[in-house]
Structures are given as structure tokens and as C-alpha cells.
Amino acid sequence: MNIRSVLIANRGEIAVRINRAAKALGLRTVQVYSAADKDSLAVRLADEAIDIGPPAAKKSYLDIEAVLAAARAAKVDAVHPGYGFLAENADFADAVVAAGMKFVGPAGSAIRLLGDKVAARTEAEKAGVPTVPGSGGRVADLEAAEAIVARIGFPVMIKAAAGGGGRGIRVAADMDEFRRQFPQASAEAAAAFGDGGLYIEKAIEKARHVEVQILGDGRNFVHCYERECSLQRRRQKVWEEAPAVGLSPEVRERLCRSAVALARSVGYSGAGTVEYLYDEASQDFYFIEVNTRIQVEHPVTEMVTGLDLVQEMLRIAGGEPLSVRQEDIAVAGHAIECRINAEDPFKNFMPWPGVVSGLSVPETEDIRFDTMLFAGYAVPPFYDSLLGKLVVHGEDRTACLATLRQALAGLKIEGIPTTIPLHKALAADGDVAAGRFHTRFLEGWLENRFAPPPAEPAKEAAR
């Protein structure tokens, strides 16, 4: 491998994860940090740490020049962006390479192509990947959009061409609603992404969200099977599984083969995820987008395949070919990941920064907790509320759920509210256990089934 050191251009649990993976490969690690993260676990773990600015992300983790200056000062060979922040910024990837370093991920050209949802859809169609009925590209104006929805029928989704992460999406149930939402969606897209372009897709009712993990070295391409990501709140994933629930072997084969075909068509290098909507009634699946980075939920794939995806990314960036062939990759058992956030699920998921006064994590070979927490850690108010990911493994889904309930009972994060109660309730739910859910399931479940525990009776005053 032709890299000996790596700068980690991120924070939180993914920075800790990359630090540990890089050290396992014998690499020197350099951690950038904002003023809010100077005492973080990632900073403590790294061989070297460099302050890149104040707490606000736009003045630190999103500041390309500040990150590049740190990389040059530390004389690193590579930069790993993690997820979020600059991970899918094609200009950043190009700048890293122009500065004489390796970018741990695909080329800027691939990020640019696949980051544009319309261009990615066109590329998917060329690779033979099924796509959702819709505009097939950006729509010129409202009149052109009306003609498309008249053809494909309602409900439809109005989507930002440059959107991502579930943002920039509106659903219209009829033409009047569509006409109201179209200009609003364009204005919001322009404000959020600097691009007001829109495209139209048929809304698949009660769809499931299934994604395929891919790896490529630019010449060889494999899949690491699929994940189930249908339990979502406001289009943000809450709970993920591998493998997906209820897919037939034939559907799984077609799904994974299509993801590899797309990776091959763009000469993909690094780890990525091809995301799909799955219509359980018809057993059809449709391409949504490609995430050109490591995913938050990558540990469930690691748990069932035995691969270390972050180490694989580093090896690829270091010029090595894929360490595995497709026939070497198999699924053993089942894994579930719960995202543990610093939010109060009984107060509309209000973010809750504060000091973690105590931490207790169950430790068995079937339980993994990816986190940056330690007792005394002060959760800052400036960033995403993710504290960690509780990941469990079992010989099948039933055993996995039993282990998950055990792990959730044993995981204690004291001092701040977290979403642990939400996951305890989901793990005990009959529909979740039976796999009867879809991307809109959780919203209704939260409204109708999730309630705070009964208040303790007040103690009678002493007489």
C-alpha cells in the first residue's frame, strides 16, 4: 500500500471508526478538529491533531482550505472524508488530488456525476438498472412537469436534482397540490443546494428502502449484499438491517447484480451505496441514488460479511486491488443497527446537548457500539445529534432481535435524554418483528403506538 498516513476530515463516531481502522493497517492518523471538539475521543486516539477553526461547521469541517492546509502541514499521504461534511463534495476530492494526496473515495468526476440525481438516473438506465417512472431528467418548467404527471399518475414526488439525504422532496396527491408545491420546491432547492432544478418521480406507496453496498477499485467491482433501511422518520434512517427482510433469492440476485453493473459503468473506486425503492407487492425495485461514501449503517454489512469496509477503502486508495472476489463474500446470520441520538423522543425528538455523566455498554461478540462517547464527554450543540450506533448480530432475525432487546436493556447513557426508549419500543413491536413495515410506517407508529412511560406516582407528603 502506497500510503503511510491519513488525515481524517470528520468528527464524532465516524472519525473514531476511521482512526481505529487506519491504525489497524499501521497508518499514522491525523485528526482535524474544531474548537468544540478539542477534547473529543477522536482527537485523543489520533497520532496528531490539528485545530481547523471555530465550532461552526462552515468555518471548520466545511472549510476546504482549512482542511487542506492541515493536510499539507501534517504531510499526510491521504485524506478520508467519512460521511457528511465534505464527503460528497467533488471539488474537495479534486483539490485533495491536486495537492498531491489520495482522496479516500471515488474520483471527483464520479462524485459529480452520481451526485446529480438526474445524471445518476440517466447513468443507471444506461447500465440497465430499473428506474422509477418519471421525468427521466430535469423538467424545464411547470407546464412540462404537468404533462409528465398527467402521464404517470398521482401520487408523485417532486425532487431536487441536487438534493440528498432525504432533503428536497415533496409529495403531491393531485394536480392542484402539485401546482402549489412545484415553485416552492424549486425555491427551496435553490436555497438549500444552490440549484433549483427539479425532476419528477412516481411515488411508490408503502415502498421499502433497500440499498446495496458496493466496492470497486476502478477495475474490479463487487457487492456486499443489501441492507434494509425502511424505518425512517422524516426521511432520515433510524434503524437498519442486513440482509433486507423478505427478499427472495431471485430478487436479491437481480438487485445486487444491478448495483455492480452501475459501479462498473462509471469505473467506481472505493465504497459506495446504491439505493432503491422496493415494491413488495410486485417485487419490483427501482433505482433512487448513489451515495459515494461510507454509510452510517455500514456496520451491519460488516457484521454479516466479516469485511472491514473502512480498511478496504484505505487499501483501495493506497493502490491495492480489491482484497475479495464476489465468490468470497457471503452473508452469515442477521444484523440490526439502532442509531442512538442525543434527542428526547418524548418531546418531538428535540436535540439535547449536555454532559454524559455515565456510560455503560454491554460487551459480547454479538454486540458492537460505534461511538465517540466517554463518561464526562460534553455533547456539543453545533452538529448532528448522533451519539453512536448499537449493532447486534444473531444467527437469524429472531435471534438478532432477542440480542438487540438484551443490548438495549444494558446500554446506559446517563446525563442526557437519548433515543434508546424509541428503539426498545421498536424492538418489542409485533409488526417490526414480523417485518411488516415500509418507509412511511414509523411516522404513523410514532403517532399511534409510541408513548412516554407512565409517570411515577407522587410520594405522599410526610405527616
Automatic annotation (TrEMBL):
<dbReference type="InterPro" id="IPR011764">
    <property type="entry name" value="Biotin_carboxylation_dom"/>
</dbReference>
<dbReference type="InterPro" id="IPR011761">
    <property type="entry name" value="ATP-grasp"/>
</dbReference>
<dbReference type="Pfam" id="PF00289">
    <property type="entry name" value="Biotin_carb_N"/>
</dbReference>
<comment type="function">
    <text>This protein is a component of the acetyl coenzyme A carboxylase complex; first, biotin carboxylase catalyzes the carboxylation of the carrier protein and then the transcarboxylase transfers the carboxyl group to form malonyl-CoA.</text>
</comment>
<protein>
    <recommendedName>
        <fullName>biotin carboxylase</fullName>
        <ecNumber>6.3.4.14</ecNumber>
    </recommendedName>
</protein>
<keyword id="KW-0436">Ligase</keyword>
<dbReference type="InterPro" id="IPR005479">
    <property type="entry name" value="CPAse_ATP-bd"/>
</dbReference>
<feature type="domain" description="Biotin carboxylation">
    <location>
        <begin position="2"/>
        <end position="447"/>
    </location>
</feature>
<dbReference type="InterPro" id="IPR005481">
    <property type="entry name" value="BC-like_N"/>
</dbReference>
<dbReference type="InterPro" id="IPR051602">
    <property type="entry name" value="ACC_Biotin_Carboxylase"/>
</dbReference>
<dbReference type="Pfam" id="PF02785">
    <property type="entry name" value="Biotin_carb_C"/>
</dbReference>
<keyword id="KW-0547">Nucleotide-binding</keyword>
<dbReference type="Pfam" id="PF02786">
    <property type="entry name" value="CPSase_L_D2"/>
</dbReference>
<feature type="domain" description="ATP-grasp">
    <location>
        <begin position="121"/>
        <end position="318"/>
    </location>
</feature>
<dbReference type="InterPro" id="IPR005482">
    <property type="entry name" value="Biotin_COase_C"/>
</dbReference>
<dbReference type="InterPro" id="IPR011054">
    <property type="entry name" value="Rudment_hybrid_motif"/>
</dbReference>
<keyword id="KW-0067">ATP-binding</keyword>
<dbReference type="InterPro" id="IPR016185">
    <property type="entry name" value="PreATP-grasp_dom_sf"/>
</dbReference>
